[in-house]
Amino acid sequence: MLSRRVIPCLDVHAGRVVKGIKFLELRDAGDPVESAKAYDAQGADELVFLDITASSDGRGIMHDVVARTAEQCFMPLTVGGGLRTVADIEAMLKSGADKVSINTAAIKDPQLIRSASDRFGAQCIVLAIDAKREPDGHSWRVYTHGGRNRTELDAVKWAEEAVRLGAGEILLTSMDADGTLAGFDCPLTRAVSDAVSVPVIASGGAGKLDHFAEVIHTGHASAVLAASLFHFGTLTVSQVKNHLASVGIPVRH
Amino acid sequence: MIAVIDNGICNLRSVTKALEAVGAQVRVVQTPVELASSGAQGLVLPGVGALRDCVASLRATGLAESVRDWISADRPFLGVCLGMQALFDHSEEGAAGGTAGLGIFPGRVVRFQRASEYKIPHMGWNTVRFTHPESPLRDGLDLDGESFYFVHSFHCVPADPALVLGECDYGGVFTAAIGRGRCFATQFHPEKSQSKGLRIYRNFATIAASVKVG
Fold this sequence. Notes:
The complex is a heterodimer.
Chain A: E1 5-13, E2 16-18, H1 32-42, E3 47-51, H2 59-72, E4 77-80, H3 86-95, E5 99-102, H4 104-108, H5 111-120, E6 125-133, E7 140-144, E8 149-154, H6 155-165, E9 169-174, H7 186-195, E10 200-203, H8 209-217, E11 223-226, H9 228-231, H10 237-246
Helix pairs in contact in A: 1-2, 6-7, 8-10
Chain B: E1 2-5, H1 13-21, E2 26-29, H2 32-38, E3 42-45, H3 51-61, H4 63-72, E4 77-80, H5 82-85, E5 88-91, E6 99-100, E7 105-111, E8 122-130, E9 144-152, E10 154-158, E11 164-169, E12 173-180, E13 183-186, H6 194-209
């Protein structure tokens, strides 16, 4: 049986791990390769590196981080942040990423999804969507730049379009839930997951064990992602997997 | 020595590092001449991306014939993901009529047809049941229940059921690995499957090391 995946995310700035609370306050804490190895040992099913380096100068460091991680961790690695062109994507895959996640660049040029998917395969093109609930309470708007910039895109429709263009997976972050520790946005996750044929990774809001099971059961998530919760050791990956198993959700041991 | 084919379309680092992690010496090869001069006892064909690019690259370099000769001589071979799918006659992947494979084994590669609750690509960790318990590739691995990492939308349907070495269930059973003599191939990615995957590479390296080059 296919396991539900538990995925730690490492936000990386200039080669160092940070985690922004609500995407704004950053706390420096650690070497990404060491963190990756620790998560590997905890039984993480995949890893996500999100490069939040603002300047292109600092981006070269990410290739080194990815290469060193891929040499030491024999598990799937997704890298996102600042990838704007097919050439950027190719370079990151060659550094050792198994998948890349694209966000703003795909909004600016949706054909990037198609070009990258045709060249490298849908399986390695992850579309990241940052979504905020609209005032109507039952639809979600796509935002960029850590939630600062509102777009014209409806989150569910954008996910459908991206899959049509060749995205192989959706990494869906609720900007409302992110950093609150109050639980994932299950209605958002369900709306997107039920609308697309590809797996959806739920992100944003995990605060306790029940939240992970909830977003799988009621949100129909294929995978769950958390950053600070794991990074600061509030919960371990193995605790989450044990909890999921205890409520009947298949996980890898 | 294990040769790993670089067909220019995918990152080989994780495959070569996995082989090195189990103690194998690795040589990356891009041409039949490099393969012949490598002195390799084993040959690995990795692959991610689009099958048509993978097959086209193998044909353009002449490595398609090398792979065919290698397998027909029963020299140790391991295909991974697209490197498995490429061995069959035909794949549904690709525009207008699909993609012709190398045709080393009779059979087809078909797109998953599953109920909508089964997300495609089949992505993540799934368990494999080995159907040839005595296969040296599964040495040290449980017969049923080891988890490996899969990411694919198409799967192989060998014409000869005896070719099947491992099965996986995703809304229906499909072929997760094949084996005949010293030729093996897996749909899953051993290089992404942590210790169990490294065990596959260790087993393959052991099989290769047992062969004299001459």
